[in-house]
Amino acid sequence: MQVPVLTNTYFERSVDQILDIAGRFAHALERAAIPYRVVGGLAVFLHVEKVDPPSARLTRDVDVAIDRAQLEAIKKAVAVEGFAYRHAAGVDMFVDAAHPSARSAVHLVFVHERVRPEYPEPVPGFSDPVRTQQGILIAPVADLLRMKLTSFRLRDRVHIQDLDRAALITPDIEASLSDALRARLAAVRATE
Question: What CATH number labels 10-140?
Fold first, then answer.
């Protein structure tokens, strides 16, 4: 007797949900000609998934880098997609009316600003993005690596390991890091 294959697993539904949120948000920004880059765990997932699908880890939310000066225009642009702005616990986010949870929200980080005062580097500016097959603009690996090495939480170190295992951290990217971030990369590699 053959066991039926489930075609719509919980994981697939989760991927579909987060890509739907990211896609609707991103497309609203593009329609309004507002620059953005998806960053964070979702961007890492999309980079790794492209070259090593079994190694890609899903995140629960969407992080987007924007220019703070565009915040009011963003509020208007994404409202038509059902996103409402919230500022809670020091975090700027847009909550999706279809999935009203901070866990499935779009969290904002601002280019050229430090996410936290103690972080050694600010969020990189808008370098050349990578467009996913879903049409979403994601930050290039070099920018993601800088952000992950800057925040350096456990989940960031795991994402760095994922990028490294997928051979996405090239010698050129590594050479472009500051001494402090290069030392953090070496520390992550030492724990593998």
Answer: 3.30.460.40
